From TrEMBL:
Family matches, as InterPro entries: Acyl_CoA_acyltransferase (IPR016181), GNAT_dom (IPR000182), N-acetyltransferase (IPR051531)
Organism this protein belongs to: Mucilaginibacter polytrichastri
Protein name: N-acetyltransferase domain-containing protein
Superkingdom assignment: Bacteria
Membrane spanning residue stretches: none
Domain N-acetyltransferase: 17-173
SUPFAM superfamilies associated with the record: Acyl-CoA N-acyltransferases (Nat)
Any one Gene Ontology molecular-function term assigned to this protein's record: acyltransferase activity, transferring groups other than amino-acyl groups
Length: 176
C-alpha cells in the first residue's frame, strides 16, 4: 500500500516510522484517531467540520510551506497509521516553530513518540536550521511531558493557549 502514496512527500524516516504528508483521501485516519477520548482529552478539540477545514488547509499548506506541516505517521512494518506529528509556526502565545504529536492509543508505550519527536526535532534544528523549537502539553499529560524531556526539551515556564495554562518546553539547537 505504501507505493500508492508515492506522490506524498516523505519528510523523514526513523527505524520504525515513515513520516510523510497526508494524502487527500486520508482524513478519516485523523477523524478516527481524534474521536478516541483517550487521545481527544489531550489535544485541541475540533468538530468534524473544523477537522475537515483544517485538513483542507493542511493540503494547501503542503504546497506553500512544504518544509513545515502536519504529517502522517505510518508503521514501516505493516503501513498501519500510527498517528500524526507537526512542525508549524507556533500558535499565538508562543514564538518560533512548534512541534506536536498524537498517536493512536494502540501505539502508546512503545517508544514511538520518543522516536518521532527526536527525529522531527533533529529535522527542524539541523535540516531546517531552526534556532529552537517549542512544545506545549496538557498539564495532566505526564507521558507527553516525559517524551519531551527524554528528547532534550527543557521546561520553560507556561503558556496560555485556548484559555488554559499549559506547560511549555523548548529545545535549542545548541542543547542537542
Amino acid at each position: 500500500m505504501l507505493f500508492l502514496y508515492a506522490n506524498m512527500k516523505t519528510i523523514l524516516q526513523t527505524p520504525r516510522v515513515l513520516v510523510r504528508q497526508f494524502a487527500e483521501d486520508e482524513i478519516d485516519l485523523l477523524l478516527t484517531m481524534n474521536a478516541d477520548e483517550r487521545i481527544a482529552r489531550y489535544i485541541t478539540r475540533r468538530t468534524v467540520d473544523e477537522t475537515r477545514d483544517l485538513f483542507a488547509q493542511m493540503l494547501i499548506d503542503y504546497k506553500n510551506t512544504p518544509e513545515l506541516g502536519r504529517w502522517a505517521l505510518f508503521n514501516l512494518e505493516d503501513n498501519d497509521f500510527i498517528g500524526m506529528c507537526m512542525l508549524l509556526d507556533a500558535r499565538p502565545g508562543l514564538s518560533g516553530i512548534e512541534i506536536g504529536y498524537s498517536l493512536n492509543y494502540k501505539y502508546w508505550g512503545m517508544g514511538l513518540a520518543t522516536e518521532v519527536v527526536r527525529a522531527t526535532a533533529d529535522y527542524g534544528l539541523n535540516t531546517l536550521n531552526l534556532k529552537d523549537i517549542c512544545a506545549i502539553t496538557n498539564i495532566d499529560n505526564a507521558l507527553s511531558q516525559r517524551v519531551l524531556l527524554k528528547t532534550g526539551f527543557k521546561p520553560s515556564g507556561t503558556a496560555v493557549i485556548n484559555y488554559r495554562l499549559l506547560p511549555l518546553f523548548v529545545k535549542t539547537k545548541g542543547d542537542q
